[in-house]
Specification:
Layout lengths: L1 H8 L7 H14 L3 H13 L4 H26 L4 H19 L5 H29 L5 H29 L1 H22 L5 E4 L5 H4 L7 H22 L1 H7 L5 H29 L1 H17 L7 H30 L4 H30 L1 H22 L13 E4 L3
Antiparallel strand pairs: 1-2
InterPro entries: MFS (IPR011701), MFS_dom (IPR020846), MFS_trans_sf (IPR036259), MFS_Transporters (IPR050171)
GO molecular function: transmembrane transporter activity
Protein name: MFS transporter
Length: 411
């Protein structure tokens, strides 16, 4: 048992050195996610905006994610990924500072649009960094470790953001900017000059020229992503206000609620991913969709802090099951064709959900009440299951799986 734990935690062990490096980067960067967790509360409670206006402003962030995800993927085919990532961290830092200073709605919309574009590009580039710096056999493990790091960062961000918001909401923005600067310094120190991995041989013409728009299983995967993303994003865009309005929870309690989600992912993500290697992609995705639907759909049926925590446990299990295999499946498609386009289109689809979900949730909340948001979200998660079956039909094995790898410096 001790030997297994040592192998798991060793830098060059189960995960590999670069998986740890990129996970540390994501952990530091996720500390700045307290802005996303508390933005809806800030806009409504601090600035006094209507819930419909909050929904439209958060949709501006989603629109930015949509553009940035695709733009980041396309640029990564022409600009060194490490250089592009560092530049985006620098821009993100200044955007976060400005968000804490601006109060006019048009300017907030513009800044949220830019913030979404930068975040969308960084999210796309992180997946490409895993593909460029991690061996094929270690990519799913790197995905799991990054998920743990991301949620550990969000756990700290949820608690710290709740405390800072109780004092002054603007401290949330300034602290997030400081964490982004720290992420930039860590990235430059550890990854800037590190060589990337490339296949010794290029795939054949048919595989190498593959583009996402002609890859039918990948298109079904995009439909799955859109539906699951719209269901899941309501956690960030609506859950905070819903728990305050219907469950009467304080801002600090809501912060702990988000922290519970992150702690559960930190505790369970690696075991679930390890077991999932035997379950297969389809079973993980279907189980994740069902649990997400149950966890969100049960919110209107109860009340109180304990019931809210129970709901969080259920939908968190769903999140932990469906997100890593979804990302790993995209990498399987990306390595067979134009990887920048694949990553860009995939995260563009995920970002489209961040655009549509707050807009839909805000209108449902304003016109039909908060309960309707969760019933619709549960229905969207269930509708993704037929798409999953289409996206995971058996296909020919990837020609790159058996190819040796070598390192090439792009410095």
């Amino acid at each position: 048992m001790t030997h297994r734990l040592t192998h798991l935690l060793r830098l060059d062990g189960y995960f590999g050195v670069m998986a740890w490096v990129l996970a540390a980067l994501l952990f530091i960067n996720r500390l700045s996610s307290m802005v996303k967790l508390f933005m809806a509360l800030y806009l409504r409670q601090e600035l006094g905006l209507a819930i419909e206006t909050v929904g439209w402003l958060l949709s501006a962030y989603g629109a930015g994610l949509l553009v940035g995800s695709m733009l980041g993927g396309l640029l990564s085919d022409h600009v060194r990924t490490a250089r592009l990532t560092a530049a985006l961290f620098f821009v993100s830092m200044w955007v976060l500072i400005l968000l804490g200073l601006v109060t006019q709605v048009p300017l907030l919309a513009g800044l949220l649009l830019l913030s979404g574009a930068v975040d969308g590009a960084i999210r796309t580039l992180h997946q490409r960094l895993i593909m460029e710096y991690c061996e094929i056999a270690q990519r799913s493990r790197a995905q799991a470790l990054s998920r743990v790091a991301r949620n550990l960062g969000m756990a700290v961000a949820g608690v710290a953001g709740g405390v800072l918001a109780q004092t002054d909401f603007r401290w949330v923005f300034f602290a997030s900017a400081a964490m982004t600067l720290l992420a930039l310094l860590w990235f430059v120190r550890t990854t800037w000059r590190r060589p990337v991995l490339v296949p010794d041989e290029k795939p054949d013409t048919g595989s190498g020229s593959r583009v996402p728009y002609r890859d039918k299983p990948f298109l079904w995967l995009l439909a799955t992503t859109l539906l699951l993303g719209m269901a899941f994003d309501t956690v960030y865009s609506t859950l905070g206000n819903y728990l305050r309005d219907y469950y009467r929870l304080s801002t600090e309690a809501i912060g702990w609620q988000f922290a519970l989600n992150a702690v559960l992912v930190v505790s369970l993500q690696i075991p679930l991913t390890h077991w999932g290697e035997r379950w297969g992609t389809r079973r993980q995705l279907v189980a994740g969709s069902l649990l997400l639907a149950c966890g969100l759909g049960m919110l209107p049926l109860g009340s109180g802090l304990f019931y809210a925590c129970l709901s969080t446990v259920v939908w968190t299990l769903g999140e932990a099951l469906f997100i890593p295999p979804l990302n790993a499946r995209v990498m399987q498609h990306a390595q067979r064709g134009k990887s920048g386009q694949y990553f860009g289109v995939f995260f563009m689809s995920w970002s489209a959900s961040a655009l549509l979900s707050p807009m839909l949730g805000g209108q449902l909340y304003g016109h039909f009440g908060g309960h309707s948001v969760w019933l619709v979200s549960a229905a969207l998660a269930l509708l993704s299951i037929p798409m999953i079956y289409q996206a995971t039909r058996p296909r020919a094995p990837d020609k790159l799986e058996g190819q040796p790898r070598r390192t090439v410096s792009l410095s």
